[in-house]
Amino acid sequence: MNFDPVFLLNGNLKNLSNLGIKKYYQKKCILKHLYRKGTLSNPEICKLTNLSSPSIHKLLNELIHENLVKDEGIGKSIGGRRPNLFGIDPEARFIIGISLGHQSSEVAVFNIKNQIINQIHTIDIHLHNSQAFIDKLYGFAMEIINRSGINMDKILAVGIGIPGLTDPASGSSYSHLNYSEKSVKELFEEKFDKPVFIDNDARVMALGEFAFGLAKRKSNVLCLNIGSGIGMGMILNGKLYQGNSGFAGEFGHIKIEEDGLLCMCGKRGCLETVASGLALERVAREDIGAGKITKIDELLMGDLSALSSEIIIKSAQRGDQYSIDLLAKIGEYLGKGLATLIHLFNPEAIIIGGKVASAENFITDSIQQTLNKYTIYQIKKETLIMTSQLGEMAGVLGAMALVMENVFEDVPASRMPV
Hints:
Elements: H1 18-37, E1 40-41, H2 42-49, H3 53-65, E2 69-74, E3 84-88, E4 94-99, E5 105-111, E6 121-123, H4 131-148, E7 155-162, E8 166-167, E9 172-173, H5 184-192, E10 196-200, H6 201-212, E11 221-226, E12 230-236, E13 239-241, H7 272-275, H8 277-289, H9 296-300, H10 309-317, H11 321-345, E14 349-353, H12 361-374, H13 377-380, E15 384-387, H14 393-407
Parallel strand pairs: 4-7, 7-10, 11-14, 14-15
Antiparallel strand pairs: 1-3, 2-3, 4-5, 5-6, 8-9, 11-12, 12-13
Helix pairs in contact: 4-5, 6-14, 10-11, 11-12
């Protein structure tokens, strides 16, 4: 597999001399700070890395020669001589972010400064448990890369968010693309010939919110992904929480109704059976079929098969009382589940993401009312309930963030030794 010698060595440090290992970490530490903080001066990098000014000067010159860092010119004076500023070269490397969905998937290419190249691209393809799905998605991604004019040698890695039970350590999915003895990670690495990082879609979305969205600069946030199912990513003490086996966040499978409907997980009464996008569509389809009066009919134009959560939300936005009540009921179920989580985690914020999040106050008002009823005021009062501002971008942004989290994982948390 084609590992990047600067950013990812995949355990091949044994092939380097002691001096080579030291320089690898020093350079990577500089790149990490430039990536996360933007342009920095030599003195600022010295302070962050605990390296001397001559050492930083030499390392920066090498990084510039390797086309990884750019001299950004003269910065503002903070007393004395105005310093030169240095920044990571946005064209140095690129990342492929992929967000897999049950009905469609999003693909985007990012430069190393988190900027999307062109736009997010959507492919309407069902998440089939087959090699054909991987082949088609890979072909779609390669078409985007080729149209962008990016050389594959500059592709650093691929990040993928996938629904269902996912083990990020092994890159295996227990819900999808498990037709082979190989993990999802291995299947995609064979196609791209690049390192691939996999995680559950809700946790990937949480990373997107943490890096680019409403969870930025927050330490304890619960991020819900409400689409066909319900998933959750948790930022706890400033880090993504994955749990002992990597399965943390299966919020959709907490029991909410005694002897309720059978869930796809095999259990009865799960939150997902009453508060997901699919549950929303199922109830509306049953009610309309039974003659319920609603303005949803006007949007369907007689085609009940076209019913979707998006249409129900649009109907509510047009003032349809049935749709408003239906969304409020979804919010009530979610609120009951979230009440328990608030008592357990005392979060700063709960961010509602996914397709159903576009309902905004039609759901969040009901959630708030339910929380007022079921939570201790002193615990809940400072918890913000918000809908994501990233929308459909959260998945691919999170996939990009997933790559960069792994890229800099081996850089020591403390400052570099002199």
